[in-house]
Amino acid sequence: MIDREPGRYVAVGDSFTEGVGDSSKRRPNGVRGWADRVAEALASDCPGWEYANLAIRSKRLRHIIAEQLEPAIAMEPTLITLYAGGNDVMDFGTRIADILAEYEFLVGRLAQTGATLVLFTGYDVEVSPFLGPLRRKNHAYNDGVRFIAAKYGAVLVDYATFTAYANSRMWGPDRLHMSKAGHKYLAARVLDVLSVPHGIRHQDKRKASRGVRQRAREHHVWVAEWVLPMFGRKLRRTTLGDTLSPRWPEPVRVPPKKGLKKLTR
Q: What global pTM score does this model have?
């Protein structure tokens, strides 16, 4: 799918691409994520790859367009991955037509670079019946992403169809971001789509079944520690990404052995 020679990979987006849920104390912003793993596999297969990751958690499409689009284009990438729009879908009062218009503008500009462009649909996370109405918006968003990917000749990673994510082990404590296992699995799927050899293996282990009382306790903890703070931030119009900078704001040469961790010592 991509040339077997070194190039420059630029990752654009929000928490999905930043790596939230896959903690790593030594890496920038304290996370690793699937995009780092993809960059490391590219460099292992063909030394010389460079990598930048501009994604920051909580960013909406308007932020990504304003803050990440031009820097990404200026880096003259040969490979771009973009996941954007999920936060817009979850915002109450947003319209799918407006979301997809901004998304297509972003995709169109990135496609003009001539880079291999990888896009993603969004997964229906089963977190609570309270968030059920958002699923219809997500389905419409996914249909739009599929249409836009075909229109601009982008590579589509149809994340929404990956049945492996029905396993709760693939999700972090907030039930909205992938766990380390989820990030590893997605990295493998992206590399497979790009026909890049890798050694990432996914074991379909399942968590032990829990009783009704334990599930109820876990649900109360989830509401208290994740849902209520999220809505509090929405009311205050603040986000978890307000004080953060991109993890890899400038292209770095990815070491073919031991990967990006060699750059964080």
A: 0.88
